[in-house]
Amino acid sequence: MEQYFSATQKMEQEVMFPSLLRGVFPQQEGAAPATGGRADLYERYQLLKAIKPVVEKGLASVTDQSPTSADADADASSDDNDTVDAQLEERLSHHLAGLQQVLTHLTRDTNALTRRYSQILEQISPSEGQPSW
Fold this sequence. Notes:
Blueprint: H1 2-14, H2 41-64, H3 78-124
Helix pairs in contact: 1-3, 2-3
């Protein structure tokens, strides 16, 4: 999760002119294929920026929640509780694995976008060591 937040923060700091990403398509090496057609890097940038607050809000809502309905389970037998606990643990593990996979893809896409943006800037700005005359 930290890698994802670090990658998005770096992207937000480095991409000063997102319009430079219009019409530029992701390179195959680091970016996942676009779903529903080919999206340029500007569209991906907008998507990645829109996803970040959703992830942050979701993370905050998970940490803010407190256990509820503990009294309702008090009458259930301990065998039923063990079965329910095992099922919940399995479901949680499944969802966390899925979340980790999604965050890994988002991180990879964010890093690829930032890297490509840096390449674009290098192409349009003259080298510091050469005279500009």
